[in-house]
Amino acid sequence: MNFRLLNKASYDAAYSKSIAQSDDFWAEIAAYYHWETNWNSVQQCNMKTAHFSWFEGGKTNICFNAVDRHLKERSNEIAYIFEPNNPEEATTIISYQKLHDEVCRYANLLKLFNVKKGDRVCIYLPMIPELVYAVLACARIGAVHSVVFAGFSSQSLAARIQDCEAKLIITADGSFRGAKSVNLKAIADEAIQTCPSIVKSLIVRRTGEKIELGSKDIDVHDVLPKLSTNCEITWMDAEDPLFILYTSGSTGKPKGMLHTTGGYMVYTGYTFKNVFAYETGDIYWCTADIGWITGHSYIVYGPLLNGATSVLFEGTPTFPDAGRFWNVIDKHKVTQFYTAPTAIRSLAKESLEFVTKYRMDSLKVIGSVGEPINEEAWQWYNEHIGKKKCPIVDTWWQTETGGILISPLPNITELIPTYATKPLPGIQPVLLDEHKNEIEAQSGTGNLCIKRAWPSIARTIYGDHQRYIDTYFSAYPGYYFTGDGALRDENGNYRITGRVDDVIIVSGHNLGTAPIEDAINEHPLVAESAIVGFPHDIKGNALYGFVTLKNENPNEVELKKEINQYIADAIGPIAKLDKIQFTSGLPKTRSGKIMRRILRKIAEGDFSNFGDISTLLNPEIVEEIKNGKQ
Ligand code: WTA
Question: What is the pLDDT confidence band of residue 1, given thresholds at 50, 70 and 90?
């Protein structure tokens, strides 16, 4: 598709047009796709009520645009190269034709179990091709997919199914993760017990372990071979829901971010092409999991909308050894590689021999996503992986934004280590000060907001529009508030400094403090808890828990283990605490609010200046906590 920006002048022109004549700009890009019926108006957006409508009146289908549209000329081109967890297992090549056929089979499977347009389908699968088939099958028939990352616990899975009242779950017997395997079906079975909305559980075979089929279970392999490899497209209104993806919030309940069809399609396709400078013949690889937004937008939809060839990777960065990523890059001659700073930092810690064994001379562009990339990791990535010849695209965006908003464009815009740099066309970032005023000076620091809507902005929090308004549109009326702090240099480049709310990013995963505290407080010996983040070499941030107990003499070593088990059960192992400190109290304001600022400083080991603690209800506790720092 020809919306590729080729040089600085075309970026500047596109950016200006996207602001001055926004409708025309997006209409031209949308015109590259197939629309069964044309739209009436390009955009109707209201930041106060948080109502956003793009391409209203238009009818399309994102699966048609991602798959069928390529069949006429490119049916034998490769959509995915599936690289399994175990390098000794053969790679699977999935052409666009094969993708179409399998997606249709899965769509027919959904229909067989009476899934209709608008029904929610929960997908709890490892990183295998069936995950892509299931996602696209939903899109094809207008069902709303809710993919849940397969590292989440049964309680987390249940909460997500209950929230959207999914009718069906698609899961697997198990998943392979490095040298281990996880019995996903057991986790799903436990979750389903508290999910009356689920009528069927479809089981994909991956690990081949013995499973018992219960009354709701269907072994998909018993049914799929009998189903047709054709399935009619359901034409969707541009604003019909496409998917729900849950992200952490500052209360215990996860937020089901709802994305719709037309705008999401237009934006992810456009940004994929331009941020990764994808050209025919390139082999693109994003190492994220499809259970997160990065996988939705830049493993499934963005690449397929461009007819791209991607590596789909089931494994982990360190199995069978810390050279796996670099090995796969050489094996498949990867040209664009997109990963997370936490992976870069953990691999940079290993012997360089794992890297120098490989040539990696196919690489053209390398990318980073999920959290700020620190200077050291940026330089290592640039030197050892990009060999100083591959631009690093440090892409800033969120589950809520649907696609990348701020990023360099390879060989077009400037690169500055640790900076996400410039907004993409259509995006107007601003920094707001503590008085809610826009910082007018060219350079400054503030809370990052976006001034006007873009096509893939989330439309609501599923079932709770008020929470959507409260979370994103009320702190700074008239703006979308990102929850991130940022600084801007004198040339208009943005550097994201990190979250300014109760979300902590651990190894690239967003974790809300409230759900973790809720999990800990379930323990019968725990009275109260507070979680803060502290800097960690590899994970970026790690979690530090301050816990007060009901009983004064527990076995602390055992109790710490139990607390982490409670967290693993409620959320998943990713939310376990690195440090736990038992204390007789937590610093509180007179209104009873925990002063996290103080706890954060203690966890960071910064005892220099706690500010005014005289307003605390219990100032003496600060000394005790300082002395007990882990
Ligand atoms: C953080 C991931 C700095 C940020 C796509 C954001 C980043 C949150 C970057 C969203 C980056 C993501 N530089 N910080 N390049 N990319 N973040 O919803 O704090 O999982 O608000 O979406 O990750 O995380 P989410």
Answer: low
